[in-house]
Design a protein that fits this description.
The protein has 300 residues and is an all-alpha fold. Helices cover 68% and strands 2% of the residues.
């Protein structure tokens, strides 16, 4: 096994892991803000990819306009789902005793709804791909070869992480979202509009999933079932810590690298079981994940 193959596998794993990290970020943002595990995360990724395809192929938009409109559209879907469905199901939003099971089931229903809506659109069952965000000859970093789309994925992921850090650290809305995620009842007593904050969290997380869909669609064949990537994002979030935004990024990139190394060093067939093996090891050694908070009851 040459060092060149290992370096190429690590570089490709970083690219793949960046997509996992974006989807994991969307899952963690929702979980930290609402305690709800979003099982429709994969379908939001799929929705972003198909809205992008609609914008490019049917309306003839350029990539920048399509990208912006897709983010806005998927944001609206997530925010509307929280406002119409979850707000109705949970009733009193500040209660410490809201049953989370119906909310989680509602996210499963959202996933099936989105998949069904996409399937009724003509030609969506045909396998397609988005054109790459950046086209042109590959770029050589030493002996490592990267496509321009790979560099675009890394750049967009880094930009999203920087934007999220700035948003949560320096804006009033970001600080209000952090307060809501830590203690919603105390936040409500301080005058923070918890309903709006949770709706904003759903919209923000959905928009990030839509971005992941646009980045993933040029590399993965587009079908209404492409949302299965969410299983790998769950693995990344669990490895990094389901309560830690930096942790899920580290978990996503690390998982992408480990998958590629396993495929080269062991067998390509072992790639499919690698995420679940990693989950088992992490849960045995550190149940809260690499950067997750210690397991403790939430204050009310």
């Amino acid at each position: 096994m040459s060092s060149l193959m290992l370096m190429q596998a690590i570089a490709s794993g970083i690219v793949t892991g960046c997509v996992y990290a974006l989807v994991a970020l969307s899952l963690v943002i929702i979980y930290k803000s609402t305690d709800v595990v979003n099982f429709a995360g994969g379908e939001l990724v799929m929705l972003g990819a198909y809205i992008g395809l609609l914008g490019l192929g049917y309306f003839g938009l350029n990539y920048a306009v399509m990208f912006a409109l897709t983010v806005v559209a998927v944001f609206a879907v997530g925010a509307l789902f929280d406002r119409v469905a979850l707000n109705t199901i949970s009733g009193r939003r500040y209660s410490a005793h809201v049953d989370l099971v119906p909310l989680v089931v509602a996210t499963v229903g959202l996933g099936y709804l989105l998949k069904g809506l996409v399937r009724v659109v003509p030609y969506t069952e045909e396998v397609r791909r988005l054109p790459p965000l950046l086209s042109g000859p590959p770029i050589f970093l030493g002996n490592v070869i990267l496509q321009r789309q790979d560099l675009a994925i890394i750049a967009v992921t880094v930009a999203v992480m920087i934007a999220l850090t700035a948003f949560f650290s320096f804006t009033l809305t970001g600080k209000a979202l952090r307060a809501t995620s830590q203690n919603s009842r105390a936040a409500a007593l301080l005058g923070i509009p918890v309903k709006r904050m949770r709706m904003a969290a759903w919209g923000l997380a959905s928009a990030i999933a839509g971005i992941a869909g646009i980045l993933l669609a040029p590399k993965l064949l587009m079908t209404p079932d492409m949302g299965v990537v969410v299983m790998l994002a769950f693995a990344a979030a669990i490895v990094g810590g389901f309560t830690s935004l930096p942790g899920c990024v580290i978990g996503g990139v690390g998982l992408g690298i480990v998958q590629n190394l396993v495929g080269i060093l062991l067998s390509p067939q072992a790639i499919a079981v690698t995420p679940f093996f990693v989950i088992m090891v992490v849960l045995l050694l550190r149940p809260q994940g690499l950067l997750g908070e210690a397991i403790a009851p939430k204050k009310v």
